[in-house]
User: What shape does this take?
Amino acid sequence: MKDIRPKLITLLKTDYATPQIARLAKRITSPSTTIHYNIKRLEDEKAILTYKAVFDYKKIGEGFCSYVLVSLSPEEYADPEKIARDLAKHSEIESVDICTGDWEIVLKVRTKDQDAYYDLVRRVLSRRGISKTKTLMSMKQLKTEFVNV
Amino acid sequence: MKDIRPKLITLLKTDYATPQIARLAKRITSPSTTIHYNIKRLEDEKAILTYKAVFDYKKIGEGFCSYVLVSLSPEEYADPEKIARDLAKHSEIESVDICTGDWEIVLKVRTKDQDAYYDLVRRVLSRRGISKTKTLMSMKQLKTEFVNV
DNA sequence: GTTAATATTTGAATATTCTCCAAATGGATA
DNA sequence: TATCCATTTGGAGAATATTCAAATATTAAC
Assistant: This one.
């Protein structure tokens, strides 16, 4: 008997959920077909990208969260997107933004613990093109993905 | 006829979605009752907090995204959580973390445009207890909430 | 303003999916 | 091996999503 929950968590992190049309219909007091029509519209015009679960990350072994400010070396200024796309591939990285100011890229990262974070920094963030990083370690999370926790 | 889509967006931002058990069952090739049992377990132990939609925020009038590093005045160091909880109440604020280092609180904020952001800073971030803020404006978002965009 | 074209709302019927239950299986312990 | 508890599974019923066609509302054209 093998535990399928890690697999479920992986899938639900970005997908495999769907809107509750009947519940929305009750909440807004419109016929569910109207809700259905309007949601399909949002999906068709790609205003809604996906439906997913939000986790208590401590309980799924991703309790260590930090923001990483990344500074690029001058030769990368022209195309920060290349490095940013590379970073976005990693499942531990929740968000990737290309920003203005002293730091060209801002990451939000979730790992099991500080060791796993250190490992990620070595594997992923110590590379040509990245000249400097600054880590802001989250000690307590009050809200994430618009959800109060 | 009044547009219900803003209301749908608000509700789907934090809730009103549900897992697709049948689709997960196909993907993992287990009976859907097994999937159901395991997901209920994750929900019961509150590893899963909610199911929600992820949006193309530009398309729902929240195209301006920035990270705000907040520095507290010394008298607030003892209890940053009070201010943080206050900040978390605002619907424009996607995440709130209490962090180590030079900046005690890190926010991720989404507004319609720079004007709306400026307005939020004035209304919410110009207050006793907050001594300084630094804004990192996102020019391009590559990944958010684990979803590549 | 009136008409025509298009978009949205809605109810009814069907298709699909979820959920409950009870039985079977698996794993752990003594 | 026997016992206990957790997990898996199939079947049945309940709930929900989806399709379709008709009605209504909105917009555009004249």
